Amino acid sequence: MKKPEILAPAGSLEKLKIAIDFGADAVYIGGGRLNLRAFSDNFTNEEMAEGIKYCHDRGKKLYVTMNVFPRNHDLTGVEDYIKGLYNLGVDAIIVADPSIIMAARTAAPDLEIHLSTQANVTNWMATKFWYEQGVKRVVLARELTFNEINVIKENIPEECELEVFIHGSMCVAYSGRCLISNYMLGRDANKGICSNACRYKYYLVEETRPNEYYPVIEDDNGTYIMNSKDLCMINHIPELIKSGVHSFKIEGRMKSEFYVASVVKAYREAIDTYFENPEGYKFKEEWLETLLKISHRQYHTGFFFGKTGEQNYEGSSYVRDYDIVGVVKGYDEETKEATILQKNRVFEGDEVEILRAHTPYFNVKLNKMFDIEKNKATNVANRAHMMFKVKVDTELKENDMLVKGKRVLEL
Hints:
The protein is an alpha/beta fold. The chain has 3 domains: 5-170 and 228-300, TIM Barrel (Alpha-Beta Barrel); 174-215, no CATH class; 322-405, Translation factors (Elongation Factor Tu (Ef-tu), domain 3, Beta Barrel), CATH 2.40.30.10. Helix content is 25%, strand content 25%.
């Protein structure tokens, strides 16, 4: 049995490196054109070249998303863009529209093509159809159950790869084909500028009483009738592996370094543990605890086991009990000083948890804080991206993350 690929989101070059360092086998990114995350820090050609080298030097892969549904004017220059991606050395492009497939087959016949979940593939005949059009891998619709995935796997050529989402935000629309944002705000979700209108709080209004709002009550918080829970399959690694799916995909190109590191770390450890001893595999609570520390909505298993209450009616806000307060940029073994890039406010004397690849969380205390830019001692790192030093007895490594529970005021 082949170990499945962990495919991680990389909304920036920094997140790409973190994803790879924490155990991802491949990353997917957005380039300058035709991807569904217009507000992400999409890669320039220079950043993409650096990212490709970083991946390939470590035996990893990089895929570029081109999964919008283009209008006529979007297709101008698309073949040149695809040829440029091929020349840079990307391992595959992720597409949703047949026009991009046609352009890719003309511009770069040897470039691997993956079909996006936006294409809504829900059965084996559609999977086989796309494979015969030159698609190497199909990212299945998120609405499928394990049983449906098994039927697809049994009825397609062995060379056709399957990919499924295993973690992250879900969309109320069918595999993301949503028009609510476009209708309400003129921001087209299928062009990468979704406003997340499904997360809004809605009321009923009677047409002759335009200023009277009637709540659609679920509880005292109001109603969130289109608000999906987050997908989380960390408790079901054996079922995922036995499904024969080639790639496990993590959602979240717009999310933080802390999110990317934590999710990749948890699934990397779980999958590796399974393959070390499939018969003796036991779930470890620490994997779920890692995922509970990141910003998330209520977790759920999506549609894998059928429709079992995937909507979150209690509110649209995230659970944010922990913050990343810094990232280690260096450590001097002689002076026991760590150089930290600030991410959120942190104080001298704080005890923080360290998130490190392939290592359980551990605690350190931050002593003797020093502001590098102002060249003086300080008791707080409170400027965005402030560089500071602290005394830490335990050796820290580059890209270790400092994580702290949020302060709770006792009244």
